[in-house]
Amino acid sequence: MKRRRRRSRLLGLALLLILAELALQLAAPLIQAAMRREPGQPDPDAPLSVLCVGDSNTYGLHLPQVYAYPALLATQLARRYSRPAQVRNRGVPGHSSAQMAQRLPADMAGQNPDLVLLLAGINDTWNRDEQERGLGSLLGRLRLVRLALVLSAGVTTAAPFEISTDEDGEIVVDRGDGAVRVNPGEGTLGTLTGSELNAAVRRGLGRAIEICRDHGATPVLLTYAEGSGPFVTVNEAIRQTARGHDVLLIDLAQAFEGHIARRGYEALMFTDHHPTLQGYRLVAQQVAQELEQAGLVPPPRAPAPGDVLAQPEPPSAPGLSLGEAGTLELSGPPGWAWQLLVSCAPVAGDGFDAGKTRIPLPADETLALSRLEPGFSGRLSANGHATVRLPPALAARTSCPLAACLLLLHDDPGPDVPQDQVQAVAAVTAVLRLP
Questions:
Q1: Beta partners for residue 427, in sequence order
Q2: Residues 249 and 364 in one domain
Q3: Is-contact 254 389, C-beta < 8 A?
Q4: Is the pTM of this model over 0.70?
Q5: Domain harbouring 352, CATH code
Q6: Which residue range is the domain that position 419 belongs to?
Q7: What is the pLDDT of residues 121-170, one digit of tens each?
Q8: Distance between CA atoms of 394 and 366, rounded to whole angstroms?
Q9: Which of 224, 225, 232, 221 is nearest to 193 (CA)?
Q10: Mind listing the pLDDT tens digit for each residue in 293-315?
Q11: Which of 146, 241, 261, 268 has the fewest CB atoms in 10 Å of its CB?
Q12: Is residue 346 located within the same domain as residue 283?
């Protein structure tokens, strides 16, 4: 008798959950429509919060963090709003579209973004998340589960987020619960092509779009600027997802066809298909323009009388020298932003352009790894100094002798300076060879 009553209660609970799920499924489109940021006449006096998620193309490899497209987009948006737009970069090198979607609730927690810019899919060719093909995928599509995630995110403060390298030189992400390697142990390595790749990208992005809308944010899809090889399949999957989910698409691949024809591939893209500084500037410019055309952000404000059009040159030159016990001593004008770059020691002809400034280091893997060190950027103190300790893992990852240089950075080039005329690097030191 007791067993029968228990079974009846379980059946009743199951029926209640099924009815609740059906009700949420039916009500979801109405709720999402009510919460969605509708195109129209955006208020330039209203605060704007933008979240940029994806892989290394969002994070920004080979260049200082201030040159990734989210940081440059913040500068573009600053010209359109009376108060600074909040643009957060949550790109993680190596992430697939499934991993991006899986971690999206944590990235949105405590931030309540108005817009979420999604750029992912190329790592689906090799980084395949098991949860997307099992129970985790099914649970992730249930409205009851997603409602619980939304409610928990609403009472959670913004989660910490830090990318660095561990003692073995591997990329790790710390979201407040300890550093976790980006790829090892998270997915299944393999080669995905054709229709399987297309389906994986559409599945991961589709889930990310649903999560954005559950949180009341407007999702925006971006294609990759690169348009060859497997990017052809991935970009087409992104376009199909945008059409299928009625989402704004910013087709960077299409825009870059013209840019590359005029400026050359090498000026806009590194050989590993990531944008250069000039490429990222064009990405930020394209995103801002298309958000404006879609009615999601206002047009640029006319400069007021007396507006400063460019920051002054640094009153003193930056300095970089060896300190004690493996430290580097940095100096320059107090309060200025700085970035330390470390690479293999350059040979004749090595270097790359950062705007109008030549960086005298090779854009190699060591430089990319140094970009992931959170202690390699900051602001000079009130007395114009900073001390940096070199992590042992950086030297352990390479057999070549190392060298470094220090960059002083303009935080904001001004409200009315054309993007292709911005000199974000204010000054750079000569190369310092490291012991």
A1: 408
A2: no
A3: no
A4: no
A5: 2.60.40
A6: 319-433
A7: 999 988 765 445 544 444 444 444 434 433 333 333 445 556 665 555 56
A8: 7
A9: 232
A10: 999 999 987 765 555 445 567 88
A11: 261
A12: no
